[in-house]
Amino acid sequence: MASGGLVSVPAMANESEWLFDGAATPVTPSTLQGYSWSQEHRLRESTAHLIVDLAQRLHMPRATGVTALVYMNRFFCVHAFQDHDRYLVGAACVYVASKTTECAMKLTDFTERTLMLVDDCRDKKSMPAASEVEHVKAKIRQYEVIILNTLSYELVVANPYHLVMLKLELVQAILNMPYEEVRDVAWLFATDAVKSIVGVQHTMEEIAAGAVYLSYLFHRIPRDTTACDSDRPWWTVLGLSGSDLDFVSKSLLGLYQHRRKRSPAALQRLFDEYPTAYRSTR
Fold first, then answer.
1. Class of domain 29-151
2. Domain extents in the chain
3. Under 8 Å between Cβ of 4 and 175
4. Which of 22, 64, 109, 240 is disulfide-compatible with 244, CB 3.0–4.6 A?
5. Mind listing the pLDDT tens digit for each residue in 94-129?
6. CATH of domain 160-273
7. CA-CA distance, 50 to 93, in Å (whole number)?
8. Which Gene3D superfamilies match (predicted)?
9. With contact defined as beta carbons under 8 Å apart, do 193 and 164 qualify?
10. What is the mean pLDDT of residues 256-278?
C-alpha cells in the first residue's frame, strides 16, 4: 500500500494473533513483494537501531523504546518495506509510544530532534530548512494515524523488562545468584529479541522466559539444579515446558549465529554447551 493510505485490518484480540510462525524464513508482506528474508532482516535491524537511538537521545524511558520496537515489528507484519519510508515509520512509532507511555513531547521538538539524528546534525544551526521540518512533521503526523489504524488502537503492549524481573524473582528464590549480573544479561537477550523478527515470533512472556533461562546458563548454572525443598529443576518456575523453553531459547541464540565467531568467549561457550546441557537433562 502506498505510504499515504490507510490500512484496514481485523481487530487483534491478543498478542498471539500478531505472531508469525517460527519458520527460519517467515513469509511477510515484504518477501511477498520480492525482498529476500535477509534484506528484510537488515531493514528491520536498521529501523530498530533508529528507534533505540532516538528514544535514548530524547531521554525516554526504556519502556518507550521497547513499545516503539513492538509497534514497528507489528507494522511490518501488515505492510511491506517497499511501500514505506522506514525512518518515518520508526520515528512515528517512537512518537506514538511516547504518548502511550506518558512521556510525550511537542511534535515540532520531536521532529527537529529526529532530523538531527537522521541527518547527523550537531546543532540546530545545521538543521534542514524550516519548510523541510514542516514537511517531515506532517509526515510523522500522517504516519501516526496509519500506525494507530494498523494496530487497531491496541497500544498497550507487554513489557519484556518487567516480565524478566518477575521471572528473575521466581528463580532467585531458588538459586540466589548475583541479581544485577543475571538481570543485565537477560535484558540484553530480551532487547535483541524485540529488535528483531523474534519479537513477532514469540510472545513477550516467552521471550522473557527464554532470556532469563539463557542468562542463568550463561552464568554456568546447570540446567538440572533443583531447590532444596523440591526435586523440580529451577527453570520450571519460568512457566514454559522444557520443549517450549528450548524452542524459544534457540530462537534467541539464533540472533547471534552470524557473528558467533566474533562473540565474547562466554557467549561462544553458551553456544557450545547449550545443546549438550539440554539433551543431558531432557
1. mainly alpha
2. 29-151, 160-273
3. no
4. 240
5. 999 999 999 989 999 899 888 888 766 555 666 677
6. 1.10.472.10
7. 11
8. Cyclin-like
9. no
10. 66
226 strand-pairing partners: 233
Task: Check for a shared fold between 29-151 and 160-273.
Answer: yes
State how far the Cα of 92 lies from the Cα of 90, in Å rounded to an integer: 5
Instruction: Write phi, then psi, for 226 (nearest 5 degrees).
Output: -120, 165
Helices (H), 128-224: 130-150, 160-175, 179-195, 204-218
Per-residue HEC secondary structure of 87-133 comes to: HHHHHHHHHHHHHHCCCCCCHHHHHHHHHHHHCCCCCHHHCCCHHHH
> Other CB atoms closer than 10 Å to residue 228's CB: what's the count?
5
CA atoms within 13 A on the CB side of 164: 27
Asked if residue 158 lies in contact with residue 204, where contact means CB atoms within 8 angstroms, the answer is yes
Q: Are the C-beta atoms of 198 and 207 separated by less than 8 Å?
A: yes
Q: In angstroms, rounded to a whole number, what is the distance separating the alpha carbons of residues 22 and 201? A: 6
C-alpha grid cell for residue 12?
487483534
Tell me the CA distances in angstroms from 6 to 3, 40, 138, 155, 198, one per residue in order.
8, 22, 15, 17, 26
